[in-house]
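Database export, one record per block. Field names are fixed; values are copied verbatim from the stored entry.
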Amino acid sequence: MQIDHAAIRVLAIAGSLRRESYNRRLVEAAAAIAPPGMSLSVYEGLAEVPLFDEDQEAAGVDGPEGVRRLREAVMAADGLLIATPEYNQSLPGVLKNAIDWLSRPDPNGKEVLEAKPIAIVGATTGPWGTRIAQSQLRHALAATGSLTLPAPMLFVRDAARAYDSVARRYDDATRDRLHAVLDAFQAWIRLSRPTA
């Protein structure tokens, strides 16, 4: 099998709309430490995605503008990095809503999550490190045909301690674990690319 060493484009999505969320900081940290050969950009338009509505979906050729932009960004990426918080032992509604929109075929019949490599991480101020939310996200993504990285996993607990708000950085242990996820994800994306 021939290995593709072309640059890898990763789109990172924080599943929280809060500007100072720990998950936003986690994807920003990922962008800062992405391994050579990986370009990682943070998606900023999640708040513009309306609640999923099949009537609204059918009303426009390309669907709502916020959905169209998200779909195009996902389509252009070689892989997705999703950082999910955990609200009430569950997946955040805003993130599930985005997955529901993305799971639908575009006007040309293209399913943007089908066979898309995805890595999941998450941070919370609580003691469990988003384990339940990540499990639920994996379950939802399995229904879309996505290729979710099985390991390593990153569950950041006690995020208020792990993230230094003055220095604006996660501690070294978290950054090392995040780097391990990114290295594995880069290899995962390359393995999932069609061979020549």
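Remark 1: Helices lie at 22-33, 54-59, 65-76, 93-102, 131-142, 159-162, 172-192.
Remark 2: The CA atoms of residues 117 and 192 lie 7 Å apart.
End of record.
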